[in-house]
Amino acid sequence: MKHFNAFLSLLLITALVFYSFYGLMPKYDEDEVKSATEFSVDRALIPLEKIAKTPHYLGSQGHADVRKFLLSELRKLGLEPHIQEGFSLNPQSKTLNKPTNIAARIKGAENGKALLLLSHYDSALVPSFGASDAGTGVVAILESVRAYLASGKKPKNDIIILFTDAEEIGLDGAKLFVNEHPWAKNVGLILNFEARGTSGPSNMILETNGGNSQLVKEFIKANPEFPVASSLMYSVYKMLPNDTDSTIFREDGDIDSFFFAFIDSHFNYHTANDNMYHLDWNSLMHQGSYLLPLIHYFADADLSNIKSETDDVYLNFPLGKMISYPFSWILPMLILASLIFVFLNFYGVKRGRISGRAIAKGFVPFLVSLISCGLIGFFGWKLILALYPQYAEIQQGFTYNGHWYIAFFVLLSLAIVFSVYKKYITKFNEPSIYVAPLFFWLLINLAVFIILKGAAFFIIPVFFGLLSFFVMIRQERPNLLAMAFLAVPAIFIFAPLIQFFPVGLGLKMLVISCVFTVLLFGLMLPVFAYYKWKNIVSALCFILAISFFIVAHSKSDFTEERRKPTSLVYYKDADNEKTFWLTYDKEIDEWTEQYLGKNPSKNTLNLAEVPYSKYGFNYSYAAEAPKKNIADFEIVLENDTLINNLRNVTLVIVPKRNVNKIDLYSEEYTSFNSLKFNGKEMPVSSLSKDYRGTKNPALINYYVSPNDSLKVEFSVEKDVSVGFKVMEYSFDLMDNPEFDITKRPDYAMPKPFVITDAVVVKRTFNVDSLKKKTVDSLFVNPEIILNNE
Q1: Can you give the pLDDT at residue 570?
Q2: Nearest to 150 by CA among 47, 301, 43, 69
Q3: What is the pLDDT of residue 242?
């Protein structure tokens, strides 16, 4: 009977682990018919199919088509949408462009703060179809607003629908709205919908300048069916250099946001695989399960009363949905747990159930397991990268077979831990062995209190562990099914985290998965310590681990389903009349070999200025290319005058072909007194050589709208000679009539996060060499005109 209970406890634990993932999000049922007042995935997919039909980055024809379509969809809902267009400059990212935002409003019955529903409609610059990022956000809003209007309710608050532009470039549409749109000053709360992958549960994260306490309370009252949220994600997010449109609203407008994003299948993020085929419809359904109840609640809530100075610990929990309590409880709960721990140790010694020697012995298997599994996670992934160099092409850091590697490392860790503990656990020393993991969990919670208070809910499973410890002291052979139920909080809280870290932060975080596996095992020793067949479980875990590794190996190559990111750039140095092929790829394949040859040069650092990219990648190979008839841009000097010993210059860079981006660099370090680009002032004090830790020495990264040019106005000391370098990009290499580029193989796609499939022209010039346009001297009589004809 004892063996049977042990077997049942293992089955129960396995089922609980499965449910900890399965229960996070709703499941789409194609046979289920939704009423007019409910969110329907089927209805949402109709506009999404049109949005994701073609890439629609700023300046593309697809971008204009999507904007026109969204305006018509909003009109179908009985709304009166309008567009907001204007130049927007972000001093931090040094991006300049002309976003075209789409806005509409449902007028409320009262004069309170407005609720803003937010997503962006531009896709990533690499030819991405933008189905998930952020087509799902756009259609979740359209379908939820439709369902809300179908209910016949009249909101108390205004409901603003905003589809921002140029989010993928530098959050510039959001910046334009919050700083220049008259509706922005009345916004009280934002619900922002995003995606960082094509599948998985949607996580709720807060954006606020103050405390989260009131926001969390209001979110719980809104009662979404499948909340996935924790103050750990909130705390980590605040520490990292993340940015969404919500960040701009918080920084520039002090407006709080809930933003929702699914992040799994991260390998599809910003790629041509972000399409309808790869989108998980359950993820779209999860977005809708948040938005509709939140609209119903916040449309009538007092949005002027959601700010607070204090923070709450919060997390989602199956069945109970959400748990929250104030940060002020963290230290008392830690002290209480520590006192209970000390008391139970004395109590166990008094009853003769634990001893100092056995406790000391219990630290050995725990530390051996923790260190060995941590080392395997850290060096194991490095070894895999050495064995499979093709993984370096996937810049996101999460490979197509990433989930199989997570399973491999977790099961290998379990095999090690079961094997190690088999050697140290003897009959009746189980309570003593349990002291070590409890002690470490208390230390972890002490560190959490000092460093990362958002993770303070880690103490909850510790309290259940202390209860299990008490039972172990009282009973020589506790009921293992009952002990498994006491492990439910640990499983529901930590099992998803074991997967979350490598999914969210890349497979380099497998070391954390391995360490958390050992820590979770330690909390569950009240069950596992009593297994007589630990070696069998260890062997089974090892066999399963090897099986998962074999599966991962079988999925390590690039196929039509798992496409290789590749890149090719045609580069023209107009100063030296030289042309080159360039690539970011680490390995030359049959497609890039057609242009770069079998032995391309690796000497690219001094050859071409590498444009800013998220991960700071440089060109890897170069080869000479045939000269093509690529039209050079024109530089028009409009003004060059001396006023109060300051030289004031206005010049315009005018493209002579269809270009998408112009990067402007100062040839040498120049101390500017003032800088303006297309009428927008760049604070000279904020100019830096990097952005979020990645090299970005440009003065401005200008994303060109159709038929636009770049107007540069600056002032310097009178004797300063000013030179510039211009990098002009067009994203048309694949269909430019000057070239005959073969189609990529089916196993390949454009590389994300870098400028590829582009024609680049570099040219330098000195302002002193320019001739000024003829002007009427009557208008400049008080000024000294320089460089006049």
Answers
A1: 96
A2: 43
A3: 64
